[in-house]
Structures are given as C-alpha cells and as structure tokens.
Design brief:
34 strands, 590 residues, eight-stranded mixed β-sheet, alpha+beta, single chain
C-alpha cells in the first residue's frame, strides 16, 4: 500500500510491503508531499506541486526506480483528480482558474485532451477498461467516454446534491457509486449505462457518509460521520442488507477492505494519536506517535440552541480544579467538523494548562443536512452565535473562566475568530487567526473558482448582487470594534484566503489602533511541512499564555490604546497539514 506520514518534519509518501514488513520513502521534496496513490500494477503515484498548489502527477515502480511523468505534454495546474484503469490508461484532471481539463493516455505516455469543463470539477473514477470516466461538479456528475463524449449527466443541486465515489472493480466495472443528499439524510445510489440510476433507499443515513467499493464489486464499505465520531457499515447491494462493522469508539480517518476480507483502517481518538489497524493482523506501518500519555480529560457537552443542541468536544487539564482559562479551537470548512481525534494543538494547549473547546456549530457536517443548512442569523454570524452560547454554557457550568477565554482558528475558522472578536467584543480576551478570510468581498474577487462558487451558494449571490450580505458578514466591517489583542498569521502564496485581503484587514486594525501582531509565512494555504505549523504553534501558545494568564489588563477605551503591528521575519517555504477526512466534493477553505 501507499501512505503519507512524517519524514523529518515533512509529510511525504511511503510504500509499504507487508510481506517484507518494510516501508520505503518514495518522495523527498523540500516542501513535502501529500497527494499519493497506488494503481493496480503497484506503481506509486504522487502530485509534484509548487507552493501555490500547481503541478503534475509522477510515478515510479513499487520497489523503486526512476521518477517518470504520469503523462507527457500536460501543463501544470492544481490537481483535480487521478484515475488509472486496470489496463494502464491514465486520466488526470487539472484546473487553470477558469475550467477543468481532462487528459488521458497510456501510463508514462503522451497525453491527449479529451474534455474541458467550465468551473471546478473533480475526476472521481475510471472503469477497469478505461471506457468511462466520472467527473463531479457542483451541480451534476458527468460521465464521459474515454474519447470525451458525454455519456450521461446526473443532476444534483439544491437538497438533492450528488457526489461521485468511483466505479466498481473487476468485470465490466461500469457501475458508478454515488451518494445523494436528501432533505433529512443521505442515500446510496448506483448508476449503469444500460439501466440508469438505482436508488438504494434501504441504505440511508441521517448524517454524512462516504463510501467505497469492496473487492467483490457488489458490496460497499460505508463510513459515517456522526456527532464527532465515526461508524463503519457494510452494504450488500445484492442482498439489500446493511451490517455494522465493529471498530473502537473514535474517528476513522480512512478504511478499506483488502481481497480476502481483511479490513484496514486508520483510527484515532482525542487521547490516542492515529494508528493503522488490520482485522486479520496483517503487519502495517507503526506510525510516529506521542512519547507519553496524551494529557487531559475529554468529554462531550451539549448546549441548547435555536436549531437543536450544539455539540462541543471539551478537553480539560488533568489538574483542573474549578474554572480554568480556555481556548475555543474553531474548525474551518465550513462543511467540516471537529472530531474525537488526536490534534497536536489540543495536546499542546491542554498540556499548557488550558481547557480546549471544539464546537461543532451550525453548518458543520456530522449532524445531518438540516444542521448544515442552518444559517438563520447569516453567514458567519450564525456560527458566532453558537460560539457565544457555548461560552456562556461552559462559564455557567464553572468549567472555564469568564475573564480568560480565547479563540483560535485556521482558514474559515480564522474567519470566525475575526468575526467573533468584532461582533461580540466583550466575550473574548484574545484571538489567533491563521490564514483567515478577513474581507468576504475581497476574498471572493481573488480566491479560487471553487471557493467563489461556495461563497455564492452561502451568500445567495456575488458581492455585486448582494453587497449588504457580504458586508454584514465581513470581519473588516467590524475591525474598529475589536477589543481583544489579536495574532494574525497569513501566507504570502495563499490562493484560498489571499494575502491582499488580510493586509487590508491589518491596515484597518492599524487605523483603529487595535493591539495586534502579524506573522507572515512564505507558503501557500495548505502545507505538508511541519516547520510553519510549529512556528505558528509556538507563537500562538506563548501569545495566549501571556494574554489569558498573564497580569490582567483592563479593557481600555479605543482612544487610549496604541496600535501594535509587528511583522515577523519571512520564513523559508514550509507548510503544514492535518490528517482530516473531507468529503470529496465539498470545496473548503480548510
């Protein structure tokens, strides 16, 4: 198999030989490597990208050898999917800022362009013979022939959105697996050229799922995210049966069944770093882990809310006696959720004496479609409302100190930090925003096409069409109301949360004399090297320790405060990543 793991502080691709019980490091790139794959003939693939996420697919034999381009005569671009048929036909999809282009050809051979689709689309599969390709866009799944002719368009949109998860293995392999979102759940769907879609309404779930074919081509392994934890199910499409697959409580970051029935899965919980497991004791790599016990006690808290209870994963220091300083670690997405999974930031904060609250606010996944669509107070403002409600609940329960609560978020989580500091200034004593959205309209103009489309779905139009909605939800609109000290970390090559709109927000803080610090990273939005992550972690923990546990500073009027805008040294290119699962067709800032 192929997996990604730490290599001297960088994420790199490894090949694992279970017979020899030996791992071989495949990639050694200065910026690290995240995207890897293995084809039926055991060639190892990875995406060779630059700081802005643009690159090409490359491969080498499983046992090692020279690197080769997956296809020649292919331009560089952001990865939009890789698929390799049983006969060695390679299909790659790349973006160019305006459209998605699909190229095919023999492995290592010359490419030919077979399709160009406007906007953002993802290549999700190829049949074993290479005769059909599946591409998923925001409104439909398109099936193409190997020559690029449209064989079918399976519409989604609205509450009936559709996600493509690949073709069945073996045989003619022309059956495509899909998930359809309904008003109150998710249902498995399959499609064949001869018969069209088949809805398996006996196989439905109340919260988000992803799925993959089993080796027999008739069963499907379904992984469900529910209330911050994972569950596995095996769906037999012929017998129409759904059987639970026992796994430990926690989170499954990935799972797959091997030929012969051996289930491999990557498991973690808040108190246990990720580990690979086999139900038949197949030797699997031992992943790097924490040297000692992960500190803290971990519990679930449910806070009443207008659209149902808000779920929080709360971690408390081992020696907590009464209320303690707290950090709300705000997840990004927005179509994502915090999990009962190990997180090095949680570990560091709890070990430093902070409580950590991870809130799955409205809009999060894992609580069903209605929760995902609950934006009644407005984009961002609904989520801030939930953060404020949970804060009040934890204070009332005497778990956290009312005068020592900070916020820390990355990407869309960083956006919520900035928005919360500006719209609810009396509630928070410090904030850390990493690679945030700071100006919704400016970010829309300069971000990726997929995220522009996401913004337009959330806001109901473009900034030109609904300017008041973008303004009402933009942190820059409230910059002069921020009272808590703020640390902003941003990236100079960030395509998702572009640096220009962050600079505009920092200028607004300067103009309002808001006390803040800035840290600029010479990287992109996503990163596969731990250097930047450690730099931000150290700076943020020291900042929060000083602001939440140092000598208490009275909140002074704006006119009496002086601005503080310190820009750190520019770092060499280093990037970090989190091993979190994302639905394959949900664009997310992170």
């Amino acid at each position: 198999m192929v997996f990604t793991a730490d290599a001297e502080g960088r994420c790199e691709v490894f090949a694992w030989d279970a017979v020899a019980r030996r791992a071989r490091q495949v990639t050694r790139r200065p910026r690290g490597t995240l995207h890897g794959a293995i084809d039926r003939d055991a060639h190892v693939w990875w995406f060779d990208e630059d700081a802005r996420g643009s690159g090409r697919w490359r491969f080498q034999p499983f046992a090692g050898g020279p690197d080769r381009p997956g296809l020649t005569d292919v331009p560089t671009g952001p990865a939009r999917g890789l698929a390799v048929s049983d006969r060695g036909t390679v299909a790659v999809a790349l973006g160019d800022g305006r459209a998605t282009t699909v190229h095919t050809g023999p492995r290592g051979g010359t490419a030919r362009t077979v399709a160009r689709i406007d906007g953002h689309a993802t290549l999700t599969g190829i049949t074993p013979t290479g005769g059909l390709l599946a591409l998923a866009g925001p409104d439909a799944v398109t099936v193409l022939t190997g020559e690029g002719t449209v064989a079918a368009v399976l519409p989604g949109g609205g509450a009936g959105r559709l996600w493509s998860l690949g073709f069945a293995p073996g045989g003619d392999g022309d059956e495509l697996l899909l998930v359809r979102e309904c008003e109150d759940g998710y249902i498995l769907v399959t499609w064949r050229p001869a018969t069209g879609p088949a809805v398996h309404d006996w196989c439905s779930f109340d919260t988000e799922i992803t799925a993959g074919w089993e080796p027999d081509g008739r069963s499907v392994l379904v992984r469900q995210d529910r209330h911050g934890r994972s569950a596995l199910h095996r769906a037999d499409l012929t017998a129409r049966t759904l059987t639970p697959v026992p796994t430990p409580p926690g989170t499954l970051l990935d799972a797959a069944t091997r030929p012969g029935g051996d289930l491999h899965y990557l498991w973690t919980s808040t108190g246990r770093p990720p580990r690979l497991c086999s139900t038949r004791n197949t030797p699997l790599p031992v992943l790097p882990t924490a040297a000692d016990r992960v500190p803290g006690t971990h519990r679930d808290v449910w806070t009443p809310g207008p659209d149902g209870p808000v779920h929080t994963l709360l971690s408390l220091p081992d020696d907590a006696r009464g209320p303690v300083p707290a950090v709300f670690l705000v997840h990004g997405g927005p179509a994502d959720h915090d999990r009962d999974a190990y997180d090095g930031v949680v570990h560091s904060l709890v070990a430093s004496g902070f409580a950590v609250a991870r809130v799955n606010y409205r809009g999060s996944t894992g609580y069903g479609p209605r929760w995902r669509r609950a934006f009644g107070a407005g984009v961002g403002l609904t989520q801030v409302e939930d953060l404020a409600s949970v804060r009040a609940d934890l204070v009332a329960r005497r778990l956290v100190r009312a005068d020592a609560v900070g916020l820390w978020g990355t990407s869309w989580g960083g956006y919520l930090v900035l928005l919360a500091l500006g719209t609810r200034p009396g509630l928070w004593q410090a904030g850390v925003a990493v690679k945030p959205v700071a100006d919704c309209a400016a970010a829309h103009r300069t971000t990726t096409p997929a995220l522009r489309a996401l913004d337009e779905r959330l806001f109901g139009g473009t900034p030109a069409e609904v300017p008041e909605r973008y303004a009402r939800s933009s942190p820059i609109h409230y910059a002069d109301r921020v009272r808590a000290p703020l640390l902003v970390a941003a990236a100079t090559h960030d395509a998702k949360c572009p640096p220009g709109q962050v600079r505009g927000y920092l200028a607004a803080l300067d103009a309002a004399s808001v006390r803040h610090e800035a840290l600029w990273l010479d990287s992109g939005h996503d990163g596969y090297d731990g250097g930047d992550h450690v730099t931000v972690l150290r700076r943020a923990v020291l900042f929060l320790d000083r602001e939440l546990r140092g000598p208490r500073r009275p909140q002074t009027p704006r006119s009496a405060r002086s601005g503080e805008h310190r820009t750190a040294e520019h770092l060499t290119e280093r990037r970090s990543s989190h091993a979190e699962g994302h639905h394959p067709q949900r664009p997310a800032r992170g």
